[in-house]
Amino acid sequence: MTTRRSDAIDYDDRIAPGDHGRIYGTMAEFATADELLAAAHAARAAGYRKVDAYTPYPMEAVVEALEIPRSKMPLVVLAGGIIGGLTGFFLAFTTQVFIYPWNVGGRPYNSWPAFIVPTFECTILFAALSAVVGMIALNGLPQPYHPVFNVPAFSQRASSDRFFLVIEAVDAKFDRGETHRFLSGLNPSEVSEVEL
Amino acid sequence: MATLDLDRRNLGGIAPLDEDEVLAPGHTPSTITDKITAIVNDRTPRWWYAAFGLSLMVLGMFLTAVIWLFWKGTGIWGINIPNGWGFAIINFVWWIGIGHAGTLISAILLLLRQNWRTSINRMAEAMTLGAVACAGMFPILHLGRPWLAYWLLPYPNTMGLWPQFRSPLIFDVFAVSTYATVSLLFWYTGLIPDLATMRDRAKTRVSRVVYGFLSLGWRGSIRHWNNYESAYLLLAGLATPLVLSVHTVVSFDFSIGIVPGWHSTIFPPYFVAGAIFDGFAMVLTLLLPLRAAFGLHDMVTDRHLQAMGKVMLATGLVVFYGYLIEIFFAWYSASNYEWFMMRNRIGGPYKWFWAALIVCNGLIPQLLWRKSIRSNVVALWLISMVINAGMWLERFVIIITSLHREFLPSEWGMYRGTIWDWMTFIGTLGVFMTLMMLFVRFLPMIAMSEMRTLTPGSGSHGAAEEPA
To answer: Would an 8 Å CB–CB cutoff place A155 in contact with chain B?
Structure first.
């Protein structure tokens, strides 16, 4: 899964350049949401840019702390909805007016008010499909392998009750020893290196 | 079945509840995860086998009835002329209406920021999917040649035929298939983070692989959550007008026709209200036994029951108003046919159906005005069952009392369901229960990732909000 689908995840699984060693990054584990939030602010303030947080539920405050750009989802869904609406209407219009005109009680072939229902339903259908497919694609999923799962604590508890902050090796400021010390100072329950 | 005992509250260190709370105090993200994953990961309770076996038997009855239908044709049913629409359409409308509550809970209440929806939305959405699956079968079974059902879809074909886009029956195809698809997408999207939890908590390699596959490799990255939250909110925004449109379109099947009692502009709002009314009744019908069986009293609290009782009361009043205004307009229309239809509905051969309908949907739900009734599990469950039956009767009354006395006395006739009609209808309850039993056994029935936001100190909007 090397295709880049969005700049938001551009660096996600890129191999660390140079001689940082073959690691993905350094990971700190936090017991509470507040500690993670504070750490996210601190990492940003310290000049780290390639930082990702992992939480068991959505946390808008962390999104803001890491200055993650607004999601492109609304645009994707808008485009899907417009395409769907046009598809629905022109499906009805072209078949009823040109391909298969059928006189029902003297109504005009282009009886557009009746076409509103299929138009509306297709709008919703295409928009919903683009919301789900778009979300999966923008997130670079499905992704069968990711280095963060190499940390045992992560693969056991990241999806339940623990909060993780990863400073990635591709960060310009990343230094194996320095970054480790920096994360250790943020009151984590554990700091570990993420192997590739 | 000792596990069904209402007093077996598996609270494990969780403090007792205040009546306003949507989640018992003392819960943390880890206790929520433990409790909900345990339902799936622990040994299958014995009652589940009994319930699943019973569901499969009823499902077998459905298959028997359907095989015989395919062999003989719709002549085995009670439909005739003038009653061309019988059980199949009654059941279709009933089931599709039931599905609406799931979407209402998951989408509309999300947009309205009602945090009591959180613990019941997953189950309600699963109920929607089961109900829509049952609903969708009836129009197809009713086709007579069900193997040609794909003719309903617009696709280029060598016959040069296209669907008639002015027909409400084609509207139905679009509305119901869109509804089924969007409900599935919404449910699955909500499940992705929880499937990741199930993957991480899996006890066997097979379940780890299956949950891992279904979770798409979800890892809870905050960048992913950012897109996810946006997508989920957009889906809710899309599902909201969709759910209102679906029963509106279903009501067009009737109101666009000229049959007395059907040709009425009140049908769309009245149908939508009826759908939500019945849907909430079905949610309670399922939720109350499941809550007792799995000891979920700390997550599905008294506040949930109060809120659902109030929604049923409010929508029930809208429905009852619909019944009364139908009578008024039948008279006010000054149409002989409309007024005859209404007098025949109230005093004709099917008068007992109408009377039962008024008792079930108009009178008995008034008990919900009392707070003590809304908190009484047994009373609430019984009222829900009465409403389920009442809403089925409503569709029977709308369809049959209008059809059996059409414009010309020479075409009048009576209708009754045959054994095959009943087997098909009761059989779909087996289909529905089978799907629900599989759901509670293999998927997390409460949205864990959302429940975690309700815990104190979650740093998320869910917890900050006081119960309104």
So the answer is: yes
